[in-house]
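Consider one such protein record:
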Amino acid sequence: MHKEPVTPHTPRPGASGTDTAATGSSGTGSSGSGDRAARLAVSVFPVLVLVAGVAGLVTPDTFAGWTQAVPYLLGIVMFCMGLTMTPLDFKGVAKRPWAVAIGLVAHYVIMPGLGWAIAHLLDLPPQLAAGVILVGCAPSGTASNVVTFLARGDVALSVSVATVSTVLAPLITPPLTLLLAGAYLPVDAGSMVADILKTVLLPVIGGLVVRLVAGAYVDRILGAMPWLSSVAVAAIVCAVVSGSASAIKSAAVSVLVAVVLHNGLGLALGYGAGKLTRLDKPASRAMAFEVGMQNSGLAASLAAAHFSPLAALPAAVFSVWHNISGALVAAWMSHGARREEREAVAGPATAPSL
């Protein structure tokens, strides 16, 4: 496939607090400082979320009532995402609609299907089953951008898929949840559409408008966006965990197994979807993370609002785990890509790399 020249720039903070993007189709070029900043974000964010989760578990009474603030916290996260967006993100979609369409179909078929299958396989209780399925029906996690960057993947494709999947979430997430989770719990798809519009789409559009109108001022504070987003996501996790602290001990093992399977299979099948549709290796790496990483903050918010705090637990665990697994897989893929580059210079490759 034709590859556009790589033009890396300062890592872009985004919705999850670890979202960094470098412009260019392959994402294989990066500045040393950008790479270090991305690695720092991907390392610190899971630790911050884990600490917040432990705090909510150990002292749940301290955070009583925080669940009501979850939609507003998610709105802050998505507004930060909008502030980091530019028209170039949407132009990237127009340049490669086929690749973006593959990513969207793979994401909204593989992850919801896996969520449903895992809930059945593990015979999860209704609340947890609905929570796992809801995680699968959520749009792509924008943390996938930084992980794709670290994996030397196609960052422009990653940004495009994450952006479009978020914009389409009000139309896709509620009916998918109704279809797959309706057998476990009642699902008010209409109310869910309204919540996604209010807590996701409107804040993203608001942030984008502010960026367009006052770009020079926004550029001065972009460095603070990842940390503001990180604190907001950590607060969401703390609220979710504290709201179901009494039930977590009995459900912790099954939820962790479900999350690890969901995320791991999503990463593998996402990469396989890229290869099956004959995308190049950088694009296939991006596809792995666009499929396997979810907007778990949105899933937690919707689960807490429409089901229960216990149903939001899989999203809270997913929020921590997918950043850890994503960083590990990115390091492995990056190692393979660097080895392939060395072999290309030295002579024929002796083994394929990811």
Residues 123 and 222 are 44 Å apart (CA to CA). The chain is about 75% helix and 0% strand. Confidence is low (pLDDT under 50) at residues 1-31. The two ends are 16 Å apart (CA to CA).
